[in-house]
Amino acid sequence: MNEQQQHEMVLEKTYPAGAEEWYCPACGRRFLVEWSPAYNMIIIEPGDQYARHRGSQCDLDTEALQVEQNDEVLLAEDSRLAPWLAWLEEVDFDDLWNREVE
Question: For residue 37, is the peptide bond before it cis, meaning its omega torsion is within 30 degrees of 0?
């Protein structure tokens, strides 16, 4: 049984708008990630898509922050996500929560 390779991601740059650029020195994987107001990830260079990539901005145990990638890469701009993203924008979760609580 082959054990999956593990690569450590490095936070290369944080842009003024808050986006972060991450880089893997082992395989060249590179992506931008925005955490707020809505999570968005743009893969610039896929690198080794079968390796397990992980990283941390601080000295926390990175096992807890591990990110795994499946064989199929699903990019944020994938057109199959458009209906779901539109639905998420329309749903008023606060209203739903208030109705459940009453």
Answer: yes
Measuring CA to CA, which residue among 44, 43, 35, 47 is closest to residue 8? 47
Walking along the chain (102 residues) 10 residues at a time, the average pLDDT comes out as 77 90 94 88 90 75 51 58 78 67 54
33 has which bridge partners? 20, 41
User: Are the CB atoms for 30 and 50 separated by under 8 Å?
Assistant: no
The number of beta carbons lying within 10 Å of the beta carbon of residue 16 is: 5
Q: Which long-range contacts (CB under 8 A, 24 or more apart) does 76-82 make?
A: 76/40, 76/41, 76/42, 77/42
Cα gap 67→63, rounded to integer Å: 9
Full-model pTM: 0.53
65 closest CA partner among 43, 93, 35? 35
